[in-house]
Amino acid sequence: MPRTRCRTRNLKPRTRKLHSRFPDHTFDTPTGARYLASDDEQERDVIGAFTYPRSEPGSGGHQDLVERLHTFTSDLQREVAGLSESEQSHRPGEGEWSIKEVCGHLCDHARFLHERLFRMIKQEEPRLPAWDQMEEWKKRDPHSVPLAELLDELTAQRAETVEMLADLVHWNWARQGRHEEHGRLSIRQLVDFAIEHDGAHFEQVRALKATPSG
């Protein structure tokens, strides 16, 4: 798999910024834009000032957040439905991701998100180790499995996360963990970040679909 990372810093000239709040993550878009960002650095940007969990109408209450996590997988499945194997595996350029590789990354991220949230719910301010994306990429070869299998894995993992969060009492969304690099962050902040992460990669998939696969 290409050593593509996600990061919004140091964008080269003529690049298109896909999202404004993503630092641990770099991916290249089919338009030639290199979108750099590290998932853990992204969390640092989202942390900013602590936002106490809220549920009043129009403010993006907790159940609204849970619903957005839930609907993402079905939206993604509809977006990639009917694509040929060549379209699923096509890389627009050197070092860029294919649709399958994006979906493989989303599977890894969903698993790691669930593990972090579980610890934050069950433990008092647990230590949250940084996520080594490159190490995860070495373990996975998305092109060797059907896209449907990747989507099934993502859907199953996200369903577990949604079920866990749906039962979380309002004030527990303020529970925190201690990131080994970026300090304290809350469950609410981590979920906000995950939703933005989903959205950025969803737009990446759309852009990949619009790129000729030759």
CATH homologous superfamily identity of the domain at 61-209: dinb family like domain
Shape: globular
Distance between the termini: 20 Å
Under the CATH scheme, the architecture of the domain at 61-209 is: Up-down Bundle
Low-confidence segments, ≥5 residues, pLDDT <50?
A: 7-24, 26-38, 40-60
Strand content: 5-15%
Strand order of the largest sheet: 3-4-5
Number of DSSP strands?
5
Main sheet properties: 3 strands, mixed
Number of helices: 7
- The H/E string reads EEHHHHEHHEEH
Task: Please give the share of residues in helix.
Answer: 40-55%
CATH topology of the domain at 61-209: Four Helix Bundle (Hemerythrin (Met), subunit A)
- The CATH C-level name of the domain at 61-209 is Mainly Alpha
How confident overall, as mean pLDDT? 78
Structural account:
This protein has 214 residues and is mostly helical. It has a domain at 61-209: dinb family like domain (Four Helix Bundle (Hemerythrin (Met), subunit A), Up-down Bundle), CATH 1.20.120. It is built from seven helices and five strands. It has a three-stranded mixed beta sheet. Strands 1-2 form a two-stranded antiparallel ribbon. Helix 2 runs parallel beside helix 7. The longest helix has 24 residues, at 99-122. The chain is globular, with a radius of gyration of 17 Å. It starts with 24 loop residues before the first strand and ends in a 5-residue tail after the last helix. The model is unreliable at 7-24, 26-38 and 40-60 (pLDDT under 50).
